Amino acid sequence: MEKDPTLQLEIERLQQHIKTLEQQNQIYRERLSLLKDTELQTAKLSAIVEYSDDAIISKNLDSIITSWNKSAERLFGYKAEEMIGRSILKIIPTERQHEEVIILEKLRSGKHVDHFETIRMRKDGSLIHVSLTISPLKDVEGNIIGLSKIARDITDRKQNEANKHDFVSMISHELKTPLTSLKTYMQVMQKKIEKQPEINEFIPVGLDKANRLVDKMVKLIHDFLDVSKIEAGKLSLNRIEFDLNELINEIIDDHVFLNTTHTITCQFHTEKLTVFADKEKITQVIINLLTNAIKYSPAGGNIIIATQKLNNKAFFSITDEGLGIDPIDQHQLFQRFFRCRRSKEKQISGFGIGLYLVSEILALHGSTIQVKSVVNKGSTFSFKLDCYAKSPGLHGLTKQSLF
């Protein structure tokens, strides 16, 4: 029996239609599965946001809050219904509301704001220190439609820092006062002894050693005070013009008692080298470098201090023939409280703040400390300073270039 051609075509058409429906059905299933996965991920993300330890807030480009999680409620004291639809300025102290303008300008250009430390205000009016990380929110077309902000409470950390600063200042003051008086009394005794040479020889020697110990303790206190000021961002400079070579000679004369086996040689390429810097702070830098050169050259040897002028910069270097520094330690050498790992260095006393202060003081001068060292052969530390004062009002012209 022959098949009806029309019927056969209809059957094939139906089969093709069924196949198309099955394909569409498969597509719908995949989309549904993707939608469920997206909903699941969205639910997970919402849960993370809602129960994060950090306050997570979103707002539009007009600074109107659009979301406010549980941690934001705990941190700032406001419920979500009190804040959503309100301006973020509600939690920003009046004197800091200009920060919002700056933040919005950055975010509108697509930039992120990372770990911006500032102060915000709670519902009860109390102030808290927070660290803010803010990112732009974009739609599917890449247009910025809002901002997402993560706020972390750093009040305890700030308080600890303040307490530490106060503690260091208090201890330094309590130690500094009696030490200053002790030094005065010893100086008076030394003067009297000089007039009576028949006095036991040990007494002037002992007083001389005591004087050195007092100087060492006072220097240590000053170093700790400066570390505290650096951490608080309060270490400032008092720049003046002075002769660097003359200062070096004065330091060597004052510290010649520190060693009996080292030979200190000065190599000055010019008789006078005028720099524009904080004389007191540069004195600290050179003393620390000289003390280290002596301290880490236990077998004695030569210490060479060199200066020269090049391109309106004063270059300083100090070279010793000491223990040298292992390459793995050189990149950490200027970190606060860092001590070299080798047993020889560990036996030498110190707190690991001298080179840290050197680095920070030079950074304030727009300079950096450089080191070249070979283990068991010695080290060279160097830096550069401006040779004369710059005059900002004269568009970078210098005093020397005006004549």
Mind explaining what this structure looks like?
The chain has three domains: 51-153, PAS domain (Beta-Lactamase), CATH 3.30.450; 158-231; 239-395, Histidine kinase-like ATPase, C-terminal domain (Heat Shock Protein 90), CATH 3.30.565.10. The chain is 46% helix and 22% strand. It has eleven helices and twelve strands. Strands 2-1-5-4-3 form a five-stranded antiparallel sheet. It has a five-stranded mixed sheet with strand order 7-9-10-12-11, with helices on one face. A hairpin with a 4-residue loop joins strand 1 (55-60) and strand 2. Residues 170-389 form the Histidine kinase domain.
Question: What would you say about this model in short?
Answer:
The protein is α+β, with helices and mostly antiparallel strands.
State the share of residues found in helices, binned by percent. Answer: 40-55%
CATH architecture of the largest domain: 2-Layer Sandwich
Uncertain runs with pLDDT below 50, 5 residues or more?
A: 342-350, 390-403
Strand segment count: 12
Sketch the topology as an H/E string, one letter per element. Answer: HEEHHHEEEHHEHEEHEEHHHEE
Helical segment count = 11
Strand order of the largest sheet: 2-1-5-4-3
* Cα-to-Cα separation, first versus last residue: 120 Å
CATH superfamily of the largest domain: Histidine kinase-like ATPase, C-terminal domain
Under the CATH scheme, which class of the largest domain?
Alpha Beta
Biggest β-sheet strands, sense, barrel: 5 strands, antiparallel
Shape: elongated
Overall pLDDT score? 77
Determine the CATH topology of the largest domain. Answer: Heat Shock Protein 90
Give the C-alpha Rg.
35 Å
EC number: 2.7.13.3
Domain PAC: 114-166
Pfam family, one: HATPase_c
Catalytic activity: ATP + protein L-histidine = ADP + protein N-phospho-L-histidine
